[in-house]
Design goal:
mainly beta; 25-stranded parallel β-sheet; 13-stranded parallel β-sheet; elongated
Length: about 400
């Protein structure tokens, strides 16, 4: 008798989820109509076409699936898609022309205070904010392409913006031309992985008051000021590439008031400054490559108890700069291509310490106009003299165990 009841009930459960087809030649012509008749668990399949339906509000637990990237057009007046239900899956659409307004922050797609929302495989073009998660948990933003065209940061919002959220996954997205590519504020226990953030006006990635997060295997290229991680703790940054971030105030990473964090196995290539660090404490900078930067590392006097170890420094104009005389951080077993010491016992570690802080870097920090004298014979002579008899550079600002050969990282 039990088996008979199961046989009757099971088909009913499967059939309770049904598919609603939307399109010009389909039973339902508009997305809003489909949402009005849908029930939790239904699938709404939208076929190719241009849909101008003002603000589309998804307030039921449905899956919305685009076929051939149907276009949802906000006509530069409206927020295009508002998700106001838990467990929504939204994929396969092209979202264009959201409204532009600095106070209301209209978006291509916005999640309002919901959990377990998945936004995948969409194209977002010419929106004020791209994808915005407000007070969300366990949401995933994956395989989306976002592009905007503003030339000033006050004219545009962020590509992927998350506020007061937790347990987010931001994966495999490409973000171009927004204010910040990815922005986290009050976001915890989240992962940012395999994203490409390119030519954004301000930062490729921007952290504010966000703790216990990890970002890895991302590329940040030619952004206005690189990446900023501020007022946060327990942030892990590994296997990222920071390159071609050039400008007066441009960095691979700007660190400000960061504590108990890790920066490991990253590549800092051709940036004005690889890492600029201010007010950081107990940060480990290990096994990174710094190559072709103006300054590889600017470590301000407000930093303490940081470890800079087992990194490779190649072809940087200045390896290290600081604005003070105290050395409250530790350099250990780095490879410096400017090291001219020797290794008599052949253990791979130089027998004399390396002083990465050159006289000229100290002079430039105090008097930026001195940069005009770079590569002059007199400056080269002063640098050589300073290494023999230090007078301005702190004698204890040194790596006591410099490596003779670069490490394979």
């Amino acid at each position: 008798m039990k088996w008979f009841l199961l046989f009757i009930i099971t088909p009913f459960v499967v059939c309770s989820q049904h598919e609603i087809n939307v399109g010009k030649n389909k039973p339902v012509k508009s997305i809003k109509k489909a949402l009005s008749i849908a029930k939790d668990g239904d699938i709404i399949v939208v076929y190719p076409g241009l849909y101008k339906e003002k603000n589309i509000v998804i307030d039921k637990r449905v899956e919305m699936r685009g076929v051939g990237f149907p276009i949802l057009d906000g006509e530069r007046l409206h927020e295009v898609v508002s998700i106001k239900a838990h467990g929504v899956k939204f994929s396969g659409f092209k979202i264009i022309n959201s409204g532009y307004a600095a106070l209301k922050d209209p978006c291509g797609i916005k999640v309002y205070n919901k959990s377990y929302v998945r936004i995948e495989n969409n194209i977002l073009d010419n929106n004020f904010f791209g994808i915005y998660i407000q007070n969300g948990t366990h949401c995933t933003v994956k395989n989306n392409k976002l592009k905007a065209y503003a030339v000033e940061e006050q004219q545009i919002g962020n590509g992927i913006h998350a506020w007061k959220s937790s347990n987010l996954k931001i994966l495999n997205n490409e973000i171009v031309g927004h204010r910040d590519g990815i922005y986290f504020e009050f976001v915890t226990d989240s992962e940012i992985k395999n994203n490409h953030s390119i030519k954004n006006i301000r930062y490729g990635l921007h952290f504010m008051f966000s703790h216990s997060d990890i970002y890895l295997h991302n590329t940040f290229t030619s952004n206005g000021a690189g990446v900023a991680v501020m007022y946060s703790r327990k942030v892990t940054m590994i296997h990222n590439v920071f390159n071609e971030n050039w400008g007066d105030a441009a960095y691979g990473i700007l660190l400000k008031e960061l504590t108990d964090s890790k920066i490991e196995r990253n590549k800092f290539l051709k940036n004005t400054t690889g890492i600029y660090s201010e007010g950081t404490t107990r940060v480990e900078i290990k096994k990174n490559v710094f190559k072709g930067n103006g300054w590889a590392l600017k470590l301000q006097a407000s930093c303490m108890d940081n470890l800079i170890a087992r990194n490779n420094f190649f072809g940087n104009t200045f390896d290290v700069a600081t604005n003070g005389n105290l050395t409250l951080n530790t350099f250990s077993k780095n490879y410096w291509d400017k090291y001219e010491g020797y290794d008599l016992n052949k253990d791979g570690i130089g027998d004399v310490p390396f002083h990465p802080l050159s006289l000229f870097s100290v002079l430039v920090e105090r008097t930026p106009a001195a940069m005009l004298l770079f590569r002059s014979f007199m400056i080269t002579l002063l640098d050589k003299s300073e290494k023999v008899l230090p007078t301005i550079t702190p004698d204890h600002f040194k790596d006591d165990q410099p490596r003779m050969k670069p490490m394979k990282l």
